[in-house]
What we know:
Elements: H1 2-39, H2 42-57, H3 61-74, H4 79-91, H5 95-108, H6 113-138, H7 141-155, H8 160-172, H9 176-189, H10 194-206, H11 210-223, H12 228-252, H13 256-269, H14 274-291, H15 294-307, H16 312-324, H17 328-341, H18 346-362, H19 367-371, H20 379-392, H21 402-419, H22 422-429
Helix pairs in contact: 1-2, 1-3, 2-3, 3-4, 4-5, 5-6, 6-7, 7-8, 8-9, 8-10, 9-10, 10-11, 10-12, 11-12, 12-13, 13-14, 14-15, 14-16, 15-16, 16-17, 17-18, 20-21
Amino acid sequence: MGMKLCGSDFVACRGFLYTVFILNFVLCCHLLQLQPFVDGKPGDTAALFERVSQSIKAKKYNEALADLTAAIEADPALSEAYWRGASILRQLCRYEESEKSYKKFLEMKPGNSAAEKELSQLYQAQNALSSAHNLFDSGDFTKALEYIDKVVLVFSPACPKAKLLKVRLLLASKDYSNAISETGYILKEDEDNLEALLLRGRAYYYLADHDVATRHYQKGLRLDPEHGELKKAYFGLKNLLKKTKSAEDNASKGKLRLAVEEYRAALALDPNHTAHNVHLHLGLCKVFVKLGRGKDAVTSCTEVLEIDEDLVEALVQRGEAKLLVEDWEGAVADLKSAAEKSPQDMSIRETLMKAERLLKLSQRKDWYKILEVSKTASISEIKKAYKKLALQWHPDKNVDNREEAEAKFREIAAAYEILGDEEKRTRYDNGEDIDDNGMGMGGGGFNPFGGGAQQFTFHFEGGFPGGGFPGGFGGFHF
């Protein structure tokens, strides 16, 4: 029994001695680590500053500052540690802490020109950063970027605030590719930087790379589910995509009025998202064309072309819209531009030919308009209109404006010559060129008075009420 107790005590004793040995070993290691700071030997100090330099090179600034702080606590007279610390703090744009360390060093080493120069650089960087913030708020993004690039990041190259402000300025300037590059550098050093994740996501969002944007927002929200800006960006994007899909689905199903509402709702969510809105405007333009709302369609397609002037589909759709509002020249111009950009597309060429034919038709006289009848008027309505207008504009009844009356009378007679003849009217309605068949319409005008090379006879059966007119026009038989 005694032997067992003795053996047990021996094991416990051995464990206790082993623990004491380990604790002493750790304590000795700490003392050895602090020995250079205590003794202040040149070799040991050099090793400290070499370690600090290596930490800075590896961008482990906190480790470097921790070493310098420990050294100062061990030896408050170690002046160079203050200087080194001040320099690191300046690079991190922790300007107030840096200024205190510089001033402490200069108290210990007054007149040190190098330290005084660095302190001056600190003030320049501090003022430049403040100016850049003010310029950002006032909308002068270019000048603000100059302050960041040419001053702040020169004297404070590791400044996280300046780097993130630069990204915000790039986003505001719509330089999304460089914003992505800059945030990439930040996230390489700190992959969990929430603001960098947010800003990088926004850059991808404004390039309409919504999948990548969503992944950045989601990663940030996994790190901080209550982050206000990340939540707003993530759910805002989800809502935009939902509205867009609803608009496209309604358009494809023929629910055109609902599609118009959804497209407009999607566009209202973020008017600055041009890379995505260009597709929304184009979709809206197509719907308006299908609805026959030419004016609205022209407006929507013009919005598209202001964003991307070379988008062929928008040129074609705007050409179609201009046909609806009878802007023949505008339609031809848009469709010609589209055909030049896409010469192999035969459907564009067909639409262009249609527009050119309509333009040509629009440039000839509108005989229906001259006789003041509709295009569906019957032959009896056309005759009635002709008699009425011929009576109204007969030169013998317009002695005070005879020259104008003769011109108007010729035009009325020419209109009746076409529309009163079933064959000619059909050819005219079909868009055939009958001006060149000796009818005298268009350039020279129609001459019912026989003053030209041809003679035309017009006879109203039974004459006009009240008999003929004096001066050779009795009975209106020419």
